[in-house]
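Please produce the structure of this protein holding ribose-5-phosphate.
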Amino acid sequence: MDWGMKNRISKLIRPDTGRAVWLAVDHGYFLGPVSKLEQPKKTIEPLLPYSDALMLTRGVLRNCIDANIDTPVILRVSGGNSIVGKDLSNEGITACMEEAIRLNVCAVALSVYIGTAHEHQTLINLSRLIDEGQRYGIPVLAVTAVGKELEKRDARYLSLCCRICAELGAQLVKTYYCDNFEKVTKSCPIPVVIAGGPKLDTDMDAFKLAYDAIQEGAVGVDMGRNIWQSEFPVAKIKAIRAIVHENASVKKASDLFSSLKKK
Ligand code: R5P
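Below is the modeled complex.
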């Protein structure tokens, strides 16, 4: 791997722990003003000091984020669909590599929809983006999207998706946690991070999700709604960080969360 690519990845995955807590705030690209992200700046700013990277679109980056931040950026560069449209899988590339370089990002992210009508199109999008990324030293984060079909999140399907992304040359992959998650991480030769998915019923559920994913081989989380839709987002991300970077147990994270909530 070339120096520039390695250097960017070292800003995303902490070299001292080998782990990462990324804040996902790209949801508006197909969901519009999703709850608690109506004013991105207000939601994101308090969480920045605790985020190892920020995943978002160029629109929110340019309009809502100060250019003097230290936090590395993962730029979402796929889209072209919406939650009210016909088919969430019909994505194309929405920002070019020149834009990514202009915005000084550490990685670009693109969704693939394997097993859908647009499988071929989104895998070719990924391959083209990886070619461009290789040319300029920009890592590609492949996102194994399931659209509205959340029930697809099982180890057989997700291990197939992650492995295909790695085979096509992605440097990083984001997927969902599932039962038998080790099957996904063990058969994927690139670092795997998990999405949080829709907000879980309890904070404890989110801590357990992060804990189990780390124990079963994920290098970290790229989490959104389970952090910023929480009543106490800063306490929540700090507790998640303890799990990811300090190997805290679910109980320890939950105790930390409870004590931080009171402050
Ligand atoms: C979804 O398409 C986006 O890429 C999100 O970044 C991703 O799902 C992670 O956010 P959440 O933890 O809210 O699922």
